[in-house]
Fold this protein.
Amino acid sequence: MAKLKDLAQMEDRLVAGHGMCLGCGIPLIMKIVLRATEDPLIVANATGCLEVCTTIFPRTSWNISWVHSAFENAASTIAGVESMYQALKKKGRIPQDKKVKFLGIGGDGGTYDIGLQALSGAMERGHDIVYLCYDNNAYANTGGQRSSATPVGASATTSPSGTQSPGKLQRRKDLTKVMAAHGIPYAAQASPGRWKDLYNKAKKAFEVEGPAFLNVLCLCPTEWKYDEAKGLQLAQDAVDTCVWPLYEVENGKYKINYKPRKKKPITEWLKPQGRFRHLFKEENASVIQRIQKEIDEEWEELNRLAGFSQQK
Amino acid sequence: MKKETWKELTLGTINLNAGNSVQNLTGTWRSGKKPQFIEDKCIQCFFCWLYCPHHAIEVQGEEVKGIKYDYCTGCGMCSEVCPPKEKAIVMVKEEIKLAERSSK
Amino acid sequence: MSTLKTLNGNQSVAEAARQIDPDVVAAYPITPSTSIVETIAKFKADGLITGEFVCPESEHSAMSLCIGAASGGGRVMTATGSQGLALMWEMLYIAAGLRLPIVAGIVNRSLSAPINIHGDHSDTMGARDSGWIQIYSENCQEAYDNFIQAFRIAEHLDVRTPALVGLDGFIISHSLEGIQVEDDEKIKKFAGEYKPVYPMLDTDQKKTVGPIDFTDYYFEHKRNQIEGIENAPKVIEEVGKEFGKEFGREYGFFEEYRTDDAEVCIVVMSSAAGTCKDAVDELRNQGKKVGLLKPRVFRPFPHRKIAEVLKRMKAVAVLDRSSSPGAFGAPLFTEIRSALYDYPERPKIVNYVYGLGGRDIKGEHFKEVASKLERIAKTGKVEEIYGYINLRE
C-alpha cells in the first residue's frame, strides 16, 4: 500500500513555478496520478488550465515529455504517439524491453464537450493509453463558461443565474458511464479528497492493457467560489453527498469503492460554493429539491449496476 | 533574461529545459498571510505535501521540514488539512514587502 | 528494373506509400481519396507494409494522430481531400508550426456548399497559408513521383515542414494510366532513413512540445517556422534532379511546354495541363506562337523563376481551378501577377476561373483563351481581366 511519505520521495514530474490558481485542484491530482507509474511517461495535454499554466514559453513545469497540439484532440494526439511507439517497436528501432506509458489529459470542456469524439475514437480503437479528465465543472481557463459537466443550478458565465433563471437548467452528462459503455478494460471515477483510491485507480489504469479512462473531480476555487483553503472538505463532501460517487468499471463490472455511512444532504455540497448561492433564495427551493432527487436517483442506479455486477 | 532571436530558437516550438519553471517564484503572489510550520507538532502525515498546489512543502529525507516561501502562495490548504488538534501549520499575518517582490 | 503497371491515381499514391512504408499511416476515408486508404489497409492486411495503420474517427483526428505520431519520432502520412482537408484545417497549421514533416496525399475536390464530389482546387488553395509545401500532379505518374519526392523534401533537415501532393479528384484519382513503378529497393533507398529531430519517444531527453507563447515569443517562433519553407526551393530542386538521375524523370518547380518562342502563354496546373498541351500542339500546327507553363510547386511559390519565363510574353492567361471570392483574382493569378510587378517589361495578364466542381475544360476552351490572348497581344488592351470558362452566363 502506497504511503504519502514514499510518494513524496519520488521525483516530481510536474514541478513548482506553474501558474495555477491558489487552491487549484489540478496539481493535487497530478501529484498522485503522475506517480502511479514508474515507467517513462509521455503526456498529451488538451488546451486548458493545466496546459496554459505549465508551459508559458520559455519555461515549463513538465519534467517528462509532453505535447500539446489543440483543444479537442488530446486523445488522438496521444494515440498518435502510442501508434508510433508500437510501430518503432515492431520495426526494432526502439528496444523491445523499453516500456513507455501514454497519458492524455483534458479538462471537462476538452473531454465532455469538444474532445468527446476524439476520445471515443481512441477508446474504440483500443490504443494502450490512459485518458485523464480533470472535471472542474466548467471552462475555467476561459473564465467559467458552462460545459456539459456543469451541474444543475450552477451559475456559470454562459448559464448565469438571474431574475428569470436559476443557473444551468440541464443535467450533467455522465461521462464515466459513457466511457464505460465503450467496453474498455477500465473506467473509473475518483476524487483528490480520497487520494489512496485515486492512486490505486491510476495505477490500475496504467497497468491494464488497452485503453483506460479516469474521471477525477477537480477543485476549482476560482469558478466554484469558495474559500480556497477549504478544498479538501469540499472534495470529501462531494463523495459523501454522492454528487461524485467513487466507482470503477472493470471489464464491464461496476464496483462502488466507497459508500458513505450516512449520505449527507446535497446542501452540504452546495452551501459553501458561491456558484450555488442563489439556490438558497426562497424561489429556488424547488431547484435544490430537484438536484437532491436526481442525485438520489443516480446513486440508486449506480448501486443497482454494482449489485447487478456482483450477482454475475 | 535575454530573449532568443528567431534564429536561436529550437526547431519546432520545443522547450528542452524540462522543469525550468522552478525559476518562477509563485511566492511573490502571497498577500497578507503565510503558513508557519511548528516542527514539534508535526506527525509527518504528509497531507500538507499532497494538498499544497504549489509544491511549497519542504521535504528533507523522509520528513516534512517546513515551507518553501519562494513558492508558497498562502492559500492555506496545508494548514486546513493538517490533522492534529494543535496544528503543525498555522496561518499567520504577513506584512507585504514590495521590495522583495521580484522574480529571481 | 522499373515495371509498367496500369494504376489509377489513388493506386499510384498507395503504391508509393507501400514502397516507402511509413511508420504510421493515419487516414480517414472520403471521396475521392478513399481508395488510397483502402489500398493501404489491404497492404497492411496482406503483410505488405510493416508500419501501423490507424483508422481514426475523423480527419481532424487523423491529422492529430499524425502530429502525435510524428512528434513521437517517425515517418508519417495521411490522405484526404475536400471537406476532409477542411476538417483538418486547424491541425494543418499546428503540424507546420511544430515542424513535423508529415506527407499528405490530397485528392483535390471542391468544397461545399453545394456539396459536390468532383475535382477542383478549392481545398488545397484554401490551405495555402497553412505553412505546408504544396506540389501538384498532372497525371498518375506524377502523383507517384511527387509523392515519393515529398518525403525527401519535407524531411530534409533544413526544411522539416509538412508537404502535400495534390492530384485531381476522379480525373486523375480514378483514371487508369500506364505508369512506371520503380523497384521497391530503389524507392526505399531514395526515400532514405528517417532522421527524427527531438523525438518524444526518446524519453531520456525530456521535452515540452507545443508550449504556449505570449507576445514575447510567438512572432519569433513563427519566423523560425517560415524559414523551413523558405529553405525548401533548394531542396525541391536537388531532389527533383536526383529523382531524374535515378529514374529518368526529372522535376523542377514547373514545366514549360513550347514556351521557347511563344508570344502568349497559358498558365494552368494539374490535370488540365495535359489537355492544354494538346490544344497548344494544334495551335502550333496552325503557326500560332502559344506556350504553356504548368506550375508544379505552389508552396513555396517559385515567383522569380516563373516571372523570368513569363516576362518576355506579350500576354498571359492564368487559369485557376478555384476562386477567391472578393479578392483581386484567384490564388494562382494573384501570385503570378504579383511576381511580375518588379519587371519593367511585363506581359498583359488575365485570369480565368475554370472547372469548379469538376466542370470539364476541353481543348476548345484553351483555344478560345489563346485567341483572346492573341487579341490582347495585338491590341495591347485588356478588356476583361477576370472571367470564367465553360460557365452558363
Q: What stands out?
A: Chain A has one domain: 4-311. Residues 83 and 302 of chain A are 35 Å apart (CA to CA). The longest strand of chain A covers residues 101-107. The beta strands of chain A are 41-45, 65-67, 101-107, 130-135, 161-162, 165-166, 186-190, 212-217, 247-250, 253-256.
